[in-house]
């Protein structure tokens, strides 16, 4: 009976894997074919890869868009990890009056959709003169209630004895955080880095509003403009999607082991 159950589970896992991987396979095949072949549903590799790549780089400023996306994603991720981990660490380690009430208000902010604050953000950033800059895209993402909650929950498994030992050795609170807490919580940081990087890299709605110049556009905006043209070149679009997808896939596979440990809340 156990063998039958395992066979059924494996069968459904294989089906789920095929369904999940099919769009990626179709994307890789499509980038080597012409637009007409893709529309016809050709499901075999073609010989138009170089033409699609040359057409893409010739008609768009893809290098600048890649740099814009990388700058926003990397800087936003680093700031999010730093600020959210400090907040999560503080909420869990230090006992202060009103902390639970403040954390409850923070959690309530997760119920507010981003669309509800877009207009106030736009007006505020317009007055500050930072619209159409990477700063306007990065600032709203550097602290999120979810990331603070994520670090707080993982900090619950952090051994307090390490902090006590550090205080006995004369370490201040800042050095305790940087020399003891951060190295111990590497899996948590890795999991948070993957989630935050993917979110920042694929961010579309707010950059669409905040970035107005063509030289400030990010990769998702470039892909969207290609797909919404009157006569879209699907081969070129497939190439742009592959280029846009590669960094997130690379980051995930590099940090895959730590990601699993971090999501499980493990501490070494």
N-to-C span? 38 Å
Tally of helical runs: 15
How much of the polypeptide forms β-strand, as a percent range?
under 5%
Query: Tally of extended strands?
Result: 0
The mean pLDDT is: 88
Structural class: mainly alpha
Return Rg in Å. 23 Å
H-E string: HHHHHHHHHHHHHHH
- The dominant shape is globular
Please describe the biggest sheet, giving its number of strands, its sense, and whether it closes into a barrel.
Answer: none
Residue windows where pLDDT falls under 50 for at least 5 positions:
none
Q: Could you estimate the helical fraction of the residues in percent?
A: over 70%
Descriptors:
268 residues, mainly alpha
Structure description:
This protein is an all-alpha fold and 268 residues long. It is 74% helix and 0% strand. It is built from 15 helices and no strands. It has helices at 2-30, 35-40, 49-59, 62-93, 99-108, 118-128, 134-138, 145-155, 160-168, 173-184, 186-201, 205-210, 219-227, 234-254, 256-264. α11 (186-201) packs across α15 (256-264). The longest helix has 32 residues, at 62-93. It starts with a helix and ends with a helix.
């Amino acid at each position: 009976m156990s063998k039958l159950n395992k066979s059924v589970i494996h069968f459904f896992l294989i089906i789920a894997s095929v369904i999940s991987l099919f769009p990626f396979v179709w994307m890789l095949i499509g980038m080597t074919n012409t637009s007409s072949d893709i529309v016809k549903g050709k499901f075999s590799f073609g010989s138009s890869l170089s033409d699609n790549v040359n057409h893409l780089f010739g008609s768009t400023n893809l290098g600048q868009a890649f740099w814009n996306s990388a700058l926003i994603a990397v800087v936003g991720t680093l700031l999010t990890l730093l600020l959210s981990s400090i907040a999560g660490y503080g909420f869990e380690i230090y006992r202060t009056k009103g902390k639970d009430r403040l954390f409850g208000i923070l959690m309530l902010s997760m119920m507010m959709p981003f669309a509800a604050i877009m207009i106030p953000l736009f007006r505020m950033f317009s007055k500050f003169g930072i619209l159409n800059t990477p700063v306007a895209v990065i600032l709203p993402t550097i602290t999120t209630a979810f990331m603070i909650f994520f670090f707080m929950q993982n900090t619950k498994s952090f051994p307090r004895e390490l902090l006590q030992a550090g205080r006995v050795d004369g370490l201040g609170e800042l050095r305790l955080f940087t020399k003891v807490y951060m190295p111990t919580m590497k899996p948590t940081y890795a999991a948070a880095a993957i989630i935050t990087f993917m979110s920042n890299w694929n961010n579309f709605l707010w950059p669409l509003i905040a970035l107005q110049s063509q030289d400030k556009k990010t990769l998702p905006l470039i892909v969207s403009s290609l797909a919404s043209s009157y006569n879209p070149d699907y081969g070129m679009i497939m190439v742009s999607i592959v280029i846009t997808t590669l960094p997130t896939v690379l980051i995930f596979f590099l940090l895959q082991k730590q990601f699993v440990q971090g999501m499980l809340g493990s501490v070494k």
